[in-house]
């Protein structure tokens, strides 16, 4: 735990793509803390983090023993406030680091599965969909490799639900008819009819 300019941080270990997910979604940098993470605007995630905080004793190293952390090659600094520091603690056990990281991994994977599913449903190859995902969400090869994403997608990826397919199809249709209306291919009345099939 470190204190600098009245900012309190808990250091935890995680996988590279989890660190990137945190930086992109919860980054709160300043001059002294360029990779600071703040969960304060995500109440559910903050609650999960707080419930894992402990007050480690210098004499009790069991909080840091047990699981191998070799897969967790990155370190992130998650901000807590002064009340969190005194009330909950300033560290996580290895077990709690892994369980908290699992929540973040699931969120990042859900984003990845959804993006790839959408692009696969539009006819993209899985390789192209993965590359687009990496570029769009800033996951270079050394952070989240295409091979790892492909293996994870093949193991756990799902097809888009029919409800989501319908929503996406409607959004794509609305973009198409808006463009056709803008260039005069269809009339204003046609635009309304095509945007609302029940009309």
Description:
- This protein has 199 residues and is an alpha+beta fold.
- It folds into three domains: 2-101, no CATH class; 105-156; 162-195, no CATH class.
- α1 crosses α4 (94-121), α4 (94-121) crosses α5 (126-136) and α7 packs antiparallel against α8.
- The protein has helices spanning 16-26, 43-50, 82-87, 94-121, 126-136, 146-156, 162-182, 188-195, and strands at residues 2-4, 7-14, 36-37, 74-80.
Main sheet makeup: 4 strands, mixed
Count up the domains.
3
Count of individual helical segments: 8
Shape designation: elongated
Strand fraction: 5-15%
What's the β-strand tally? 4
Determine the fraction of residues in helical runs and give it as a percent range: 40-55%
Order of helices and strands: EEHEHEHHHHHH
* Cross-sheet strand order for the largest sheet: 1-2-4-3
Q: Structural class of the secondary structure composition? A: alpha+beta
Overall mean pLDDT stands at 84
* Computed CA radius of gyration, to the nearest angstrom: 22 Å
Separation of termini? 61 Å
Indicate the low-confidence ranges by residue numbers.
none
Secondary structure elements and pairings:
Blueprint: E1 2-4, E2 7-14, H1 16-26, E3 36-37, H2 43-50, E4 74-80, H3 82-87, H4 94-121, H5 126-136, H6 146-156, H7 162-182, H8 188-195
Parallel strand pairs: 3-4
Antiparallel strand pairs: 1-2, 2-4
Helix pairs in contact: 1-4, 4-5, 4-6, 7-8
What keyword list fits this structure?
8 helices, 199 residues, four-stranded mixed beta sheet, 10% strand, single chain, 52% helix, 3 domains
Task: Give me a quick take on this structure.
52% of the residues lie in helices and 10% in strands. The protein has 199 residues and is of the alpha+beta class.
């Amino acid at each position: 735990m470190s204190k600098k300019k009245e900012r309190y941080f808990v250091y935890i270990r995680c996988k590279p793509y989890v660190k990137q997910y945190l930086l992109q979604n919860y980054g709160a940098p300043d001059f002294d803390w360029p990779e600071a993470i703040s969960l304060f605007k995500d109440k559910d995630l903050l609650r999960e983090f707080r419930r894992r905080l402990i007050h480690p004793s210098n004499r009790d190293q069991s909080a840091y023993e047990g699981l191998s952390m070799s897969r967790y090659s990155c370190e992130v600094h998650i901000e807590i406030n002064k009340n969190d520091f005194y009330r909950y603690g300033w560290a996580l056990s290895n077990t709690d680091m892994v369980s908290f990281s699992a929540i973040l991994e699931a969120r990042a994977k859900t984003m990845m599965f959804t993006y790839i599913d959408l692009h696969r449903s539009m006819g993209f190859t899985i390789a192209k969909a993965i590359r687009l995902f990496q570029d769009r969400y800033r996951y270079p090869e050394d952070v989240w490799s295409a091979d790892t994403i492909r293996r994870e997608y093949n193991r756990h990826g799902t097809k888009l639900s029919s409800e989501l397919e319908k929503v996406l199809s409607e959004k794509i249709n609305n973009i198409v008819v808006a463009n056709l209306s803008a260039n005069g291919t269809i009339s204003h009345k046609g635009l309304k009819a095509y945007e609302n099939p029940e009309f």
